[in-house]
Design brief:
heterodimer; A: alpha/beta; 7-stranded mixed β-sheet; 31 helices; 38 strands; about 30% helix; globular; B: alpha/beta; 4-stranded mixed β-sheet; 23 helices
Chain lengths: ~950, ~575
């Protein structure tokens, strides 16, 4: 279908008259569009510019001089057409149509939309025509209501079958849940096989609610905050607090209640008004009554330090409250409330003491990828300039450290080379080890859409992840065999001579070495290692090699291995040898996990580099920062997250400052982390809730949440966006940047920033990539960096069009050999454990498990097992299983799923009561220092009692 | 949809046009581009691309007798198609069932011709007879296309003109009877082949190059043959449009899905002249350049489908199908597609939607199928009768055909005559024959009663009064009289019949068969039926019909997507006007 027709269509025009006005429009323009452009509004209920027209409500009919009227939303303008959009006859018929629809509606005083946001489009149209429900037309459709969903109310009576929700679900989000069922007057929208919405495969993105013009699909109030008309609420334009996609949204805030009533997607070049369940419904965590509101100091009697709750101690059998979050009743008595003065003084004194007694290396800081750029910057400045150590890191270590290591080595920059939306320009896209529909749902919607528009989608994963259902080729590889797989693909690309010789000659080094290495990976051998048919590898090699534009997206399935850097090196090589970098529809895009993991890394929360990846061991660069910060700085790279934990165990690191990190659940081998945390002499934890990690703290500082402060956040696309203050912080909670500043001043590092804006100005001056960006030019939708002209341009989509920012401007290939994972299954531990995330949850669940919607939809931990394995193990769906590794054991419900592979299982790591990281291995990648979360050996057995019910 | 490797980037449908960093922006909705490619082609809301699931669903139903949920979930998983799509199909097409069927299913038609002939009473009797029989389910259904053997009943999808009890018993015993197609003995005047003579002569000549496409089109145009399915579009013109399209591939479809109450002439044509139907269709394929053709037949026409199947075998055996037919270099393939049910599929764009595997909901038009038909390709669609007339026209010439008409009309026409007549059936007479002549041919009004009214063109045509008996039944005269030729189905109503009730019966048919896609038809037909049913229940008549009905009639007629909604209330309005003594508008 790829012809030149569209180009021709753009030049051809037709002339017609609409309401007597002569118009000239491009051929193919609908009458509705043409009228609108001429300032003539034609009513419509089923039509919206975002969707393809379907012409079903018929209120947009116009008189084209034919036997019957034409639906203007779908009818194309024709040469010489004479259109009348408003005649007494048309208006009469439109009024009749509205009357017909009204007759089946609930009464306005009970209409779900009119009684909430009060913007029912049908009722507004009825008012316009002066008609009301029951004007001679018998009432009632009898289709009923569906209250099964926790946050979306369905009223089939209020449905006018406009198909907007169908198009929203299918064409926009590609979730494919809603359709029309039955026929005639019995026709209705339905979910899956006419299942209740709450029991359907609906992923609660809420796109249907946003699309619905009537009261058929509306949001339910969350935590009893009533949904009111927009005019009665305050609108705050900000960014979603969850994943790295960074969707723009608007919160509708009830000032009387200091709470968010509902959220809506907002136009932005990346996310384009889309949201997922977390963004649209997971906003209420900030209002959870468990928020920390005053500083806390550990009571004398609660020393020596150790975990305070039975869960965290590891003897969780006697849990009083199964599931959920930290048991405050059990933990809080170990702390006393303190003033900010006392808490900060104590923290400063103790950290300073450790510093002077044991040297800079005894101090370490964990920053957070959830905090703003400004806060990340201040935090690393505090550790570096205040304590003279580079022992500062954050959770990027746990997600894309290996990708960044490979990218810095290979192309000289850790950021993505193009945006996720650029997939639309790709012929072939490879999604490698990324469960995007769960972890980056809005980006996934663009991937699915691109595929429906012709991009070939190749999904390579060990599990049949959701996006695999949309793939042209789904390639299920054995865990830990990525290097062999991509070497096999490259072998085929080279064998077929599909490499881009010119690109290689001009822009790549070490190609010969790569060719030599992959020569040993013919598809037969690679396929044997990966468990994939050689023909599939050949086909992928052919498709990739022949693609005019190829793009690779990847996630933790690539990075979280002891070979994570090698895996990423392969992907860099894949793009380099085919010339797939630096043009539209090509590139390398590691999908970033947390909302600001890109920004936190940019801002220097990495032990080896200052802000903007400027190496600490480069004297010139160090001198620049020494000048800027007026302090002598440590020339040695610091310890990483995983190394800091190990160091704490052996008396290296003794004092720590942790902002918004929860290593107890997020780091591998929890039993080891527990010992490390208990071994610390002094620990300050700054967070919005009392986390598992905070149980080990000497001082706990209550932070303002994302919702309660201002700052900038950088998404996976390199889009820097302004997050605005939505709510007032509870109690005495304060923004992190203020707390960091106060602590800095107490340890002798003067800071005097009046606002995050001032911090941003400082970091912008030190970060060439952010050059030119300012609070004033970020605008409503943020800007991509680098950006030569932020006043007028959205920024750079495609990077490295001419050269790479390496010393010689070329991509440096470093071909890896395949190496097996560190702990292979054996008779005792025969299964491979894979860990990861669920759509509804995020990180260690501190926020999502305190969000009503997210917790209601996914309340419990589970292990996903292949049906045949489950049958062999004698475990039924929903029954409890005990999963054990050499490091620990957990009990949780089994979910039998066709998405798993035999011999493998999957456990999300969000759930403290069955912490996946009790099982994981703490082996790390030698370059990125990232743990091998995606591979360890476990045993699965039926558990007789569910967690929490067995007597302790 | 292959925008595959190396495809020219400029060729990718341009969306948005918003240039940022020299990039095309992603556009919401993949179809936005599609809509731009073909002006007026609507979005594919709820329709999934990919092969039709109707076939696999039929296969599951054949295996289990119904569609168990686990099978549907499995189908969804294996085909990677959404569950909603499957539900949309299963709940739309009456053929599909989501519960185990009873051992014996008895379907009773309740539409006009049956209703006029004691249908309600027969349904009551059958219902009573099997009320306590757990193995027998009695259902009321829409027109079965057997209006000449009324009231029509079928047992296990086989027509049962009489002897319902015997059929139920054989079906109960597990060996349902397969009814033979009803066939006349006399050859029809539109058949150029004498009994025993080798058929497909015209097709062979065309394949041999003796009849070039242009000549066939010219001959058809000259003959003034028009579509016999109801809309009356000039056949030569239609073939010319499809032949002139440059897009490949092209398709051809014989619409054998007549389902309107009173209309059963295509059924007879299929039973008696399957060779003419297939020859016409194959000629259409030759002329337009289509290589694949289908006969889309309603599932209630089991006996006729079997006739057609054996004729298709004969065609195949004669070497008239295949990749290089008779050495002509042309590929011709034909398949029979059995409808999963529903009157609306007779609407050609709904039929296309069904063939593509979607819910049979009519498309917004234009574009028309000739330009943008099956899977967006140029598609020739004619009805059974239209195709059947083609061979004789090409054999004997346009002039001969024109001369067959009467009263200024041209050609022959198959009329189905039903209702209150002595000999309901299918009659092949000159186009332009008057209703009076046709009723006489059918033995006159039943029991010698007075005529109250008649519909000349099937259930969708307006009622005419006895004053109109001498109006020639043709394309031009009937509209002048306030009705239309439609499908050529004359429904006769004797004096003593409640005309408003008859028209309401017709409305019920349209309400039941509305696909529900557009508001006026979905809601309007339902509400109008409610209003009229209440009115009739109160014992009132046309005098009580108020402005609301006229308002609805106008709205349905002017704003509905397809013919079904446009005509649904016409008959009601016509009887009101007829009884009020006004000339129908």
């Amino acid at each position: 279908m790829a012809t030149t027709a569209p180009v021709a269509a753009q030049t051809e025009t037709v002339t017609l008259t609409i309401d007597g006005r002569e118009l000239r429009v491009p051929r193919g323009t609908t009458i509705w569009e043409a009228a609108r452009q001429a300032g003539i509004e034609v009513p419509a209920l089923c039509h919206d510019e975002r969707y393809d027209p379907v012409g079903v409500c018929r209120t947009c009919v116009v008189d084209v001089g034919a036997r019957v009227h034409a639906a203007s939303c779908v009818r194309a303008c024709e040469e010489g057409m004479e259109v009348r959009t408003s005649t007494p006859e048309l208006e009469r018929q439109r009024a009749t149509l509205v009357k017909l629809l009204l007759a089946d509606q609930p009464p306005p005083e009970r209409d779900p939309k009119q009684t909430t946001t009060a913007d029912n489009e049908l009722l507004a149209m009825a008012d316009g025509y002066g008609v009301s429900r029951g004007d001679g037309i018998p009432l009632g459709s009898g289709r009923g209501e569906d209250d099964s969903h926790p946050v979306i109310a369905v009223n089939h009576d209020a449905c006018i079958l406009c198909d907007r929700c169908v198009r929203a679900c299918d064409d926009i989000q590609a979730n494919d849940v809603i359709g029309r069922s039955r026929k005639g007057h019995a026709a209705r929208i339905s979910f899956d096989l006419e299942d209740p919405m709450g029991e359907s495969s609906c992923v609660t993105c809420g796109e249907c609610v946003a699309a619905c013009p009537t009261g058929a699909l509306v949001n339910k109030p969350i935590r009893e905050v009533p949904i009111r008309p927009r005019s009665e609420l305050d609108q705050v334009d900000t960014v979603c607090p969850y994943c790295g996609v960074g969707c723009a949204l608007t919160y509708h805030v009830d000032r009387d209640r200091n709470a968010i009533a509902f959220a809506e997607g907002r136009e932005q070049p990346g996310s384009r008004r889309r949201l997922c369940v977390k963004g649209r419904y997971g906003f209420d965590y900030a209002s959870n009554p468990q928020r920390l509101t005053v500083p806390l100091i550990r009571r004398e009697g609660s020393y020596p330090k150790g975990a305070l709750s039975s869960d965290v101690r590891g003897d969780g059998r006697g849990r009083r409250k199964p599931g959920g979050v930290v048991d405050y009743d059990e933990v809080m008595p170990h702390f006393r409330e303190a003033s900010w003065e006392e808490a900060l003084d104590l923290a400063a004194t103790r950290l300073k003491g450790i510093h002077s007694e044991h040297g800079p290396g005894a101090i370490a800081g964990f920053g957070s990828a959830k905090c703003s750029n400004e806060e990340a910057y201040l935090f690393q400045k505090l550790i570096r300039a205040g304590f003279g150590t580079n022992n500062v890191d954050h959770c990027t270590r746990l997600c894309h450290a290996s990708s960044v290591a490979a990218l810095l080595e290979g192309v000289g920059s850790g950021a993505v080379t193009t945006t996720y939306g650029d997939i639309v320009n790709a012929d072939v896209a490879i999604l490698a080890g990324t469960n995007t529909t769960s972890n980056h749902p809005v980006a996934a919607s663009f991937f699915k859409q691109a595929r429906r528009r012709g991009t070939k989608l190749i999904v390579v994963d060990t599990r049949r992840v959701g996006i695999a259902d949309h793939a042209d080729i789904f390639c299920r590889i054995k865990p830990g065999t990525d290097v062999a797989f991509y070497n096999g693909v490259m072998h085929e690309v080279i064998r077929r001579d599909l490499v881009d010789r010119e690109f290689i000659a001009d822009r790549v080094t070490n190609y010969a070495k790569l060719a030599k290495v992959v020569r040993d990976y013919p598809p037969e051998r690679a396929g044997q290692i990966c468990g994939v048919g050689p023909d599939v590898i050949r086909e992928i090699g052919r498709l990739w090699g022949e693609a005019g534009a190829g793009i690779i997206f990847w996630g933790m399935g690539i990075s979280q291995h002891t070979t994570g850097t090698d895996n990423s090196r392969c992907l860099i090589a894949m793009c380099s040898i085919t010339g797939n970098v630096g043009r539209p529809g090509t590139g390398l895009h590691p999908l970033r996990g947390q909302n600001n993991v890109q920004g936190a890394s940019d801002a220097g929360l990495i032990p080896m580099v200052f802000p903007d990846y400027q190496k600490v061991d480069n004297p010139e660069l160090r001198a620049k920062f020494e000048r800027a910060w007026d302090r002598e700085l440590d020339p040695e790279p610091g310890l990483t997250v995983t190394e800091i934990v190990a160091s704490a165990l052996h008396g290296g690191v003794r004092g720590m400052y942790m902002v918004g990190e929860n290593p107890f659940l997020s780091d591998p081998n929890v039993n080891k982390v527990r010992k490390a945390l208990a071994a610390l002499e002094f620990l300050v934890v700054e967070d919005i809730f009392l986390t598992e990690t905070a149980e080990f703290a000497d001082v706990v500082l209550p932070a303002a949440s994302y919702m309660e402060k201002e700052g900038t956040y950088t998404n996976t696309d390199r889009r820097v966006q302004l997050g605005r203050k939505v709510l007032d912080p509870p109690g005495e909670a304060r923004p992190d940047w203020e707390i960091i500043q106060d602590l800095a001043n107490r340890i002798g590092l003067p800071m005097d920033y009046a606002s995050p804006r001032e911090v941003f100005e400082e970091l912008e001056a030190l970060m060439p990539s952010y050059h030119g960006l300012s609070y004033d030019n970020l605008g409503a939708t943020g800007k991509l960096y680098p950006n030569d002209d932020p006043e007028h341009s959205d920024g750079t989509v495609v990077m490295f069009t001419e050269a790479f920012p390496t010393d010689d401007g070329k991509a440096h290939l470093r071909p890896p050999e395949w190496m097996p994972a560190k702990e292979l299954p054996d008779d005792e531990y025969p299964f491979v454990l894979n860990t990861g995330r669920l759509l509804q949850h995020w990180h260690t669940g501190t926020m999502t498990r305190r969000s009503y919607a997210l917790d209601a939809i996914e309340p419990a931990a589970a292990v996903w097992i292949h049906p045949d394995d489950a049958a062999e193990l004698g475990i039924g769906d929903g029954e409890f299983a005990r999963v054990s590794s050499r490091r620990g054991s957990i009990e949780l419900a089994a979910r039998i799923s066709h998405r798993e592979t035999r011999g493998n299982c999957f456990i999300p790591f969000h759930f403290r009561e069955a912490a996946a990281n009790l099982l994981t291995i703490d082996e790390i990648d030698p370059y990125g220092k990232i743990p091998e979360y995606k591979f360890c050996a476990v045993r699965i057995e039926p558990a007789r009692f569910p967690v929490g019910t067995e007597a302790g | 949809m292959d925008g595959g490797p190396g495809a020219d980037r400029a060729g990718r449908p341009a969306g948005g046009g918003d240039e940022r960093g020299g990039l095309k922006e992603a556009v919401d909705g993949r179809g936005a581009a599609a809509a731009r490619r073909v002006p007026g082609a609507e979005g594919r809301a709820g329709k999934f691309p990919g092969p039709s699931l109707i076939g696999p669903l039929k296969a599951i139903q054949r295996q289990h007798g119904w569609l168990p949920r686990e099978e549907l979930v499995r189908l969804s998983r294996e085909t990677r198609r959404p569950l909603y799509e499957i539900q949309g199909l299963v709940s739309f097409y009456p053929h599909f069932r989501t519960e185990a069927p009873p051992k014996v299913e008895v379907a009773c038609c309740h539409d006009l011709a049956c209703w006029l002939n004691g249908g309600e009473e027969r349904i009551r009797v059958i219902r009573d007879r099997y009320a306590d029989d757990p193995e027998v389910e009695v259902r009321e259904v829409s027109c079965l296309g057997r209006c000449d053997a009324v009231p029509a009943v079928s047992v296990g999808d086989e027509p049962a003109a009489s002897g319902v009890e015997e059929l139920v018993e054989t079906a109960r015993a597990g060996s349902p009877e397969r009814a033979p197609a009803k066939r006349g003995t006399e050859p029809r005047p539109n058949d150029p082949y004498a009994p025993g003579e080798e058929r497909y002569r015209v097709l062979r000549r065309a394949l041999a190059g003796e009849l070039p496409a242009e000549r066939i089109i010219a001959e058809l145009t000259d003959s003034r043959l028009r579509g016999m399915g109801g809309a009356g579009f000039p056949t030569g013109k239609k073939w010319e449009i499809v032949a002139g399209e440059q897009t490949q591939p092209k398709y051809a479809i014989c619409n054998a899905d007549e389902s309107e109450p009173g209309t059963f002439k295509d059924r007879q044509c299929l039973a008696e002249q399957p060779h003419l139907v297939l020859e016409g269709l194959l000629l259409g394929m030759l002329v337009t350049g289509a290589e694949q053709g289908w006969v889309f037949i309603r599932h209630e026409y089991g006996p006729e489908e079997r006739v057609l199947e054996s004729e298709l075998d004969a065609v195949r055996e004669a070497g008239l199908l295949g990749s290089d037919v008779l050495g002509s270099g042309r590929r011709l393939d034909l398949e029979i597609f059995t409808s999963p049910g529903g009157y609306i599929l007779g609407e050609e764009s709904a039929l296309l939607e069904c063939l593509e595997g979607h819910r049979g909901e009519p498309r917004n038009k234009p574009p028309f199928p000739g330009n943008h038909g099956l899977w967006g390709k140029p598609t020739l669609i004619n009805s059974v009768e239209t195709f059947a007339h083609v061979p004789v026209i090409l054999e004997r010439g346009a002039e001969w055909w024109r001369e067959q008409g009467a009263n200024g009309a041209t050609g022959l026409k198959l009329f189905a005559v039903s209702g209150h007549v002595e000999r309901p059936g299918v009659y092949c007479v000159p186009l332009g024959t008057t209703a009076r002549e046709l009723i006489e041919l059918a033995g006159g009004v039943k029991d010698g009663a007075e005529l109250a009214a008649f519909q000349p063109g099937g259930a969708s045509s307006n009622f005419l009064s006895p004053d109109d008996l001498d109006v020639p039944l043709d394309f031009d005269s009937l509209p002048k009289a306030g009705s239309m030729l439609g499908s050529g189905a004359l429904v006769v109503i004797a004096a003593g019949t409640d005309l408003l009730a008859a028209a309401t019966n017709v409305l019920r048919f349209f309400r039941d068969e509305s696909c529900g896609k557009c508001v006026p038809c979905r809601v309007g037909s339902h509400k109008a039926h409610e209003i009229l049913t209440e009115l009739l229940a109160r014992g009132e008549g046309t005098e009580a019909v108020d402005e609301r009905i006229f308002e609805l009639e106008e709205t349905l007629r002017m704003t509905s997507i397809c013919g079904l909604g446009q005509v649904a209330l016409g008959p009601v309005r016509s009887v009101v006007e007829l009884e009020r003594g006004r000339a129908p508008a």
